[in-house]
Amino acid sequence: MLRTALTLSLSLASWSALAQTWNSNAGGWNTGYGTVYSSFGYASAVQNIFTTTQQNIARLTTRQAMINKWGLAAVEKAEREAASGRALPEAGPQVAAPRVVKNLGAFKPDKRVSAAKLIAEAITESPEEREGVVALVQATKVGFEAQPETKPWRNNVAGALAFFLIANATIANGTPEPSDEVTQAVFAAVNASVDESPELAKLPNKDKQQLYELLLGFTGLAMALSGEAQEHHDEALAEQARALSRQLLQLVLKVDAAAVRFDRLLSQP
């Protein structure tokens, strides 16, 4: 899915803005991203999401293992029986009742809300560079929402979080892009985690949209750097993209990129 989610080319202005946020003396990225993110108080609302997402991924992996062994029809039959309170036969899949999908991260979009300008203002002071960054951030959102695979993800904080997690982990670790099956499983796990998060569920509609667009925008900037590096075979630029993705994962989810791997997710045990 990520291969077709969006194709971004850096304009001269936007590249200048992104390059200037790299502080080679400090060995890291300047604080613009953190400033715009933390200013809305989202940190506490999402800081436990990765832990609960890991737990939900483990449940999905266990379910897939049972499907591999017993078949989908048998697992779904057992889930229906568990939901009705019936005792499950010992000679068959032992499952819990399926969770109810609530989609508490969903919101009704408001055209008056936009994070593109906020991101641009946080990372550069040049009007020309801001214009380039705004264009990149807006293109990310359009590209993300244009794909059929992301239809259930749109206008949902969980969709932006899943996209953020998958794309930045892939860039930071230099790993192959996960399959569509895996990306949908990650979304299901993140969506369950958001449903279980009272803080995120209680966010006003405007704040959900703001967080959604910030996550998409941050991810688009990292993807743009990575794509530019691949196109021009520029290893220095590739390392900057990896560094940005590592910082973003730490900023938003308080997690080391090395801990976010999808290599074995839903694989045959």
Topology:
Elements (H helix, E strand, L loop, with lengths): L1 H4 L6 H9 L1 E2 L4 E2 L2 H7 L4 H4 L2 H22 L1 H12 L32 H8 L3 H20 L10 H17 L6 H16 L2 H4 L3 H28 L2 H19 L16
Antiparallel strand pairs: 1-2
> What Rg do the Cα atoms give?
20 Å
The total strand number stands at 2
Q: Which structural class do you get from the secondary structure elements?
A: mainly alpha
Order of strands across the main sheet:
1-2
Shape: globular
Mean of all residue-level pLDDT scores: 81
Task: Please state the oligomeric state of the protein chains shown.
Answer: single chain
Low-confidence blocks of residues: 8-13, 22-29
- Alpha-carbon distance between the two ends: 24 Å
* Strand residue content: under 5%
Q: Key terms for this structure?
A:
269 residues; two-stranded antiparallel sheet; 13 helices
What can you see in these coordinates?
The chain has 269 residues and is mostly helical. The chain contains 13 helices and 2 strands, in the order ααββααααααααααα. It has a two-stranded antiparallel sheet. α9 crosses α10. The longest helix has 28 residues. The two termini are 24 Å apart. About 5% of the residues have low confidence.
Task: Summarize this structure briefly.
With 269 residues, the protein is an all-alpha fold. It contains 13 helices and two strands; from the N terminus they run H-H-E-E-H-H-H-H-H-H-H-H-H-H-H.
